[in-house]
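Narrative progress, year one. The postdoctoral researcher (J.K.) led the effort to move from monomer predictions toward full complexes, under supervision of the PI. The following entry was the first complex the group processed end to end, covering 223 residues in total.
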Amino acid sequence: GAGVSQSPRYKVTKRGQDVALRCDPISGHVSLYWYRQALGQGPEFLTYFNYEAQQDKSGLPNDRFSAERPEGSISTLTIQRTEQRDSAMYRCASSSSGQRARETQYFGPGTRLLVL
Amino acid sequence: KNEVEQSPQNLTAQEGEFITINCSYSVGISALHWLQQHPGGGIVSLFMLSSGKKKHGRLIATINIQEKHSSLHITASHPRDSAVYICAAGSNYKLTFGKGTLLTVNP
């Protein structure tokens, strides 16, 4: 009965390193979303999965960002060769269906990434 | 211009006051969401509406589809209502978020 969980909660890394951020959605939720939130801003859409299929990755800033959800449950957002501008809060959310916007999304606590 | 605009950006109130936060959107939507972001960072969904009005406790959300405008009202505000309130326009599966309104309710 747990909510959406994310790990790690905080990640400090040096510029140029790769990072992997994990999201564990609510059990049984079909849809999973990744967002990025800069300080003082609202979340910004990155990518969306329906089961294991990545149906929209239009929000990923560039090809250093990738995401997967191989078994339709846990998802990983990977940032390669991190840059300081990647520093932000990365949140994931899940919803039971997600095919329509008339559905509540449940947000995880986020991973705060700091790139030095 | 952002697709979702909120006003005010910051709002300070005294306990007991009636609060209104406004949201205007320029995109077509199937639903408008209001969310609350706690000081600790967690985000909780408050309302999802596509027409009319919804009420939950001291919170009321309204939407005017023709004018592409929504409001979130808090009656008898309390210091524990202090948070960032975010509206998001929903189209298909995608949410477009406003920047949020920082509400501070003083005792």
